[in-house]
Amino acid sequence: MDKVFKALADPTRRYLLDRLHENNGQSLGELCESLAMSRQSATQHLGLLEAANLVSTVRRGREKLHYLNPVPLHEIQERWIEKFERPRLQALSALKERAESAMSTKPEFVYTLYIHATPDKVWEALTDAEATAAYWGHSNVSDWQVGSPWEHRRVDGSGVADVVGTVVESDSPKRLVTTWAGPDEERPAGPSKVTFDIKPLGDVVRLTVTHENLRDEAEKRMAAGGWSSVLSNLKTYLETGSPLPADLWGRD
């Protein structure tokens, strides 16, 4: 949290977040267009935002695209707002919603979080049916081989899958890519795609989740709220051995 508050204390860095809030997924050149400073200075500010996990980056060819990452803001909300039983700040809600906006050629969502765990433990938490049932409320079921189907099954014993898809990439414990769609859903543009990138950094793991090809604004809003809750619960589950309390889990 110290890095987050330090990053937010600077007006230039807040301005950069506002720019991403308005149009997510910008290159350094695009962000520098309205800044009265050198590219080197802007890079330093973006580096501090990235270190605070407020900005995530994804390379597309030679370009490095910057995305607003609302997960730390969600964690601030849980730690500093919810425990005092205050209403959610409208600004945080606006940031989360506007973070969904992206051009069709860019990932709609890029979330990054840091977890005190090993890559193998993170991979297991994403692919083990019992583990996903504990913190996600659904079981992810597959053999996780490339080309295999996977299902996001309810844990009420019905066996109903609310999401189905195909494993596109499976490189344990580094990278998992799957398609997502409802079992009877018609999607003219094809299913959405979720990528989990797992990278060890000392005794922690950086997990980056990219969700692409979302259909419309309603689906974007649903995905934004869902991923914030799922990733917070995943982090808590891996670091403490237990998911968040049920009353907190049900709020998003």
UniProtKB/TrEMBL annotation:
PROSITE patterns: HTH_ARSR_2 (PS50987)
All copies of domain HTH arsR-type, residue ranges: 1-88
SMART domains: HTH_ARSR
CDD domains noted in UniProt: HTH_ARSR (cd00090), SRPBCC_CalC_Aha1-like_GntR-HTH (cd08893)
Highest taxon above the source species: Bacteria
InterPro entries assigned to the protein according to its UniProt record, in alphabetical order: ArsR-like_HTH (IPR011991), ASHA1/2-like_C (IPR013538), HTH_ArsR_DNA-bd_dom (IPR001845), START-like_dom_sf (IPR023393), WH-like_DNA-bd_sf (IPR036388), WH_DNA-bd_sf (IPR036390)
Family designation: Belongs to the AHA1 family.
PANTHER family assigned: TRANSCRIPTIONAL REGULATORY PROTEIN
Name used for this protein in its record: Transcriptional regulator, ArsR family protein
Native source species: Streptomyces hiroshimensis
